[in-house]
């Protein structure tokens, strides 16, 4: 592009304009050959219509078995252009949950809860606590504080 502008505006030779721009003459004359991918598209569509869950490797192996000699990179480029590489994410079947309300104890000492907690002091030293709590009146029956609590 720049070499062509130099030729037209300043009437220089092709070799001189390519040297100024820093382009080889081969690159100046290069015309890309665009491959016809219609056959690959039809073969991929035929395979994926029959086998919906197949990914690229299985499709490419089937293409090789059919006798086509296409490069895997070329087939994968067409495969991606057809948007066949999108992962189908299935919904996980989770059974419906029916949470039950927790029972409130009727008297003191009937039900206790225990829990571990972790915190750090001002000097960034970590410590853990082991708590035992009565569920009836939410009274802490015992708290054990230790730096290394297993």
Describe this structure in words.
- The protein has 150 residues and is α+β, with helices and mostly antiparallel strands.
- The protein has three domains: 31 residues, no CATH class; 44 residues, no CATH class; 35 residues.
- It is built from six helices and three strands.
- Strands 1-2-3 form a three-stranded antiparallel sheet, with no helix packed on it.
- Strand 2 and strand 3 form a beta hairpin.
- The radius of gyration is 36 Å and the shape is elongated.
Outline:
By secondary structure, the protein is an alpha+beta fold.
Ends apart, CA distance between termini? 72 Å
Rg measurement, Å: 36 Å
State the assembly state of the protein chains. single chain
State the share of residues found in helices, binned by percent.
25-40%
What is the averaged pLDDT score? Answer: 88
Kindly give the count of domains.
3
User: Strand order within the widest sheet?
Assistant: 1-2-3
Summed up, the helix count is 6
How many E-type strands? 3
Content of β-strand = 15-25%
Write the H/E string, N to C: HHHHHHEEE
Structural class: alpha+beta
What would the principal axes of the Cα set say about the shape?
A: elongated
Identify low-pLDDT runs: none
Largest sheet at a glance?
3 strands, antiparallel
Set out the fold topology:
Layout: H1 2-10, H2 14-21, H3 25-29, H4 38-50, H5 56-65, H6 72-81, E1 112-120, E2 126-134, E3 140-146
Helix pairs in contact: 1-2
Pfam family, one: HTH_21
InterPro entries: HTH-like_dom
Protein name: HTH-like domain-containing protein
